[in-house]
Amino acid sequence: MSGAEGKLELERIVFIGRTFEEYLRMFNLKESDLVGQRILDCPAGACSFTAIANQLGGDITAADIAYFHSTDELADKGVQDIEHAMFELEKVQDNFVWDYFKSIEDLTQARSKALNDNIKDQRQNPERYVPVVLPDLPFNDEAFDLTLSAHFLFMYSDRLDYDFHLRTVNELMRVTKGELRIFPLVDLSCKRYAHLDRFIDELVRQGFAVEEMEVPYEFQKGANQMLRIRRMKP
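Predicted structure:
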């Protein structure tokens, strides 16, 4: 699918992101794990991981369908989306664990910081932000040592079907030399992805090593595990 064909209308894109510190917890990473590593964040949205990790010695690329739009458009959209998300979250606070974040005000500050870091880095280093339309990626085979994919695949299992999940993960693994980490493993209703066991079995059948790992982060209830997918050594 070309960019022209795949570009979503901006109103249909939710441009909200997590902070660098959240990424470390979500994916069970240390800052030292990033140094000298080629890392893909896909879809990266308004997250600040690319901006901060590159400053710390990583070689990070962010990919997202949102990047077909201008940085100015995304900056405005991000502010609107944070405001809307916080309004809606007020109604479902019981679906979240208020430990890492102490209040909605605390969460709003974190989401705003991620957005600001992201937009600043997009303006300074636009080549790091690549527009893509999953399940197709414009990168070479094994271009990255590590790929991270947050708050997308299994979370939206009500609108992304099993085949899309499988094709996307195979494509992410095509461009990954080392391993792919996916977080979280639950849907928007805080339930474990219904087809996860079948999904894991299929990946193992294809020759990948797959494991569910608990991580030191839980905001959405039950969302404290990631999927780690690696190539089996010959």
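Summary: The chain has one domain: 3-231.
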